[in-house]
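Many introductory courses stop at the sequence. We go one step further.
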Amino acid sequence: MNVAAWPYDPRAWCGSCGSCDPIGYYRANVAKSLEFAGHLLRNGCTRMIFSSSASIYGPDADLTVDEDSPVAPQSPYARTKAVCEAMFTDIAATQPLRVLSLRYFNPIGADPKMRTGLQLRRPSHALGKMIQAQEEGTAFQVTGTGYPTRDGSGVRDYVHVWDLAAAHVAALGAFDSVLPVAGSGPAATSTVINLGTGTGTTVRELLDAFNSVVQAPVPAVDAEARPGDVAGAYTGSDRAKRLLGWQPRYSLAEGIRHSLEWAAVREGMLGRSV
């Protein structure tokens, strides 16, 4: 695993989730994942698909990454994902467990049939803040406008959550061809696959797409970057298509529309307390 330095100051980081809980992240993402791997081995389960994150990457100069790009997490959350990947690689190298890690980029959207969606009432990612601004009749803050992108705002690879779900189904079906059983193919015991669209969308472009979907456009105001914010990245790899036969089918506009539709019914489905 190509792991670069992890240059961040955890004391200053607040991140896009709106809170900083390193103990919670390490407990849930590392300690419990280790216990889970132990349970799998005790029960004779030899295959595992791990939900990882593209936040572990340190992007190249052009802000693209692939599965061989350096790992350089910029937040406690991202660091726990990198630790888990390294931990699972070590376990898989010595135990009868094969691990396929799927590195998500930036999920948006909801079940197109509105049966489920994002659980948080006030998500703090960019699209969540746009929906909140629309509901409250306020301006959306573009936090950070000096990044080396085409318009100065951060860039992300927004992938529909239902496409991510389809990728997991594809990974289940292709698991033994991606990581063959010992003696039936190459001896790899773990690998990683990026799940993204291959298209980078800046925050300003996301707002333009959002305003093309809603009836009343949301204005923007520029603001300082938050501690822990990064320029972002998008995937330039076709490994998912080659190994899983998967590629995203939903557009950015559909992801935004489904997020808006879910926000309108969420409280009735889940209740106000969630």
